[in-house]
Amino acid sequence: MSLLRTRGLSRHFGGLIAVEGVDFDLEEGEVRALIGPNGAGKSTLVGMISGRIPPSRGTIEFDGVEITSWPAHKRIMAGMSYTFQITSVFPGLPVRENVALAARRRVPQGEVTQAVEAALARVGLGERIDQEAGDLSYGHQRLLEIAMGLVQRPRLLILDEPTQGLAEGEVAQFKALIRDLAGATTILLIEHNMQVVMEVADRVSVLNFGEMLAQGTPEEIRANAEVQAAYLGGGDAAA
Ligand SMILES: Nc1ncnc2c1ncn2[C@@H]1O[C@H](COP(=O)(O)OP(=O)(O)OP(=O)(O)O)[C@@H](O)[C@H]1O
């Protein structure tokens, strides 16, 4: 059974069709990359999956339960974790406190300290646990965000452009982390860096103008003529 399943999922903003009729299935334990040109609808799609954006039409099931109208916090409780672009980091609080706050909803009180330390060690920030989050480099703040997702022990971890702004060494660390998590945690990754996609994803889904253009292994996607025309051939993401 799929862990996540959408049927006919659509979102319109006034007359603009951001996402249209998307049927999307994620199998338990897989690493899936979601790619597509700028404005293709990737953030809108994961916004609907994570409960931040209400769909105009369609349904979402998580672990066999229809969750289409559930608020975001209820989805987190059910094991869905969504990390994006630093906005959830409190710069004035120590790294440890940031992760502990993220742990609150999912981790029993007595296990929080250990869970926080384990999550930070996993992303390579173990030695920075007592620093103020605002003093971390941009790349380390991105890794902190991932730790804040991981500490929730998610069944589905959704990462929105996790390598954006990371230094080369941090990207390598990120790839190793995803390989380490693969199998135990289902991962959905919005990613522009094609090298990362090719190296870590089991399967790739391509959105174009709000519709699912293609899905397949990284090799199949790389060889797909339609995808090349829409995406890989043209813009900066081909690198
Ligand atoms: N709140 C909104 N109001 C109006 N239009 C929106 C809104 N959010 C997104 N859109 C539009 O919907 C379309 C899809 O946007 P979305 O951000 O989902 O694409 P994306 O694939 O994530 O792009 P990027 O790679 O640039 O982040 C775009 O045309 C965008 O301008």
Using brief descriptors, characterize the structure shown.
single chain, 239 residues, alpha/beta, Rossmann fold, 6-stranded mixed sheet, 4-stranded antiparallel sheet, 9 helices, 10 strands, globular, binds adenosine-5'-triphosphate
Task: Give a brief rundown of this model.
Keywords: ATP-binding, Nucleotide-binding, Transport. This is ABC branched chain amino acid family transporter, ATPase subunit. The chain contains 9 helices and 10 strands.
Describe the structure in your own words.
The chain is 35% helix and 27% strand. Helix 6 (168-181) links the parallel strand 7 and strand 8. With 239 residues, it is of the alpha/beta class. Helix 4 packs across helix 5. Residues 13, 16, 18, 36, 38-44 line the site of adenosine-5'-triphosphate. Keywords: ATP-binding, Nucleotide-binding, Transport. This is ABC branched chain amino acid family transporter, ATPase subunit. One of its GO terms (molecular function) is ATP hydrolysis activity. One of its GO terms (cellular component) is plasma membrane.
SSE layout:
Elements: E1 2-13, E2 16-27, E3 31-35, H1 42-50, E4 57-62, E5 65-66, H2 72-77, E6 80-84, H3 95-103, H4 112-122, H5 138-150, E7 156-160, H6 168-181, E8 186-190, H7 194-200, E9 203-208, E10 211-216, H8 218-223, H9 225-232
Parallel strand pairs: 3-8, 3-9, 6-7, 7-8
Antiparallel strand pairs: 1-2, 1-4, 4-5, 9-10
Helix pairs in contact: 3-4, 3-5, 4-5
The chain binds adenosine-5'-triphosphate.
Adenosine-5'-triphosphate binds at residues 13, 16, 18, 36, 38-44.
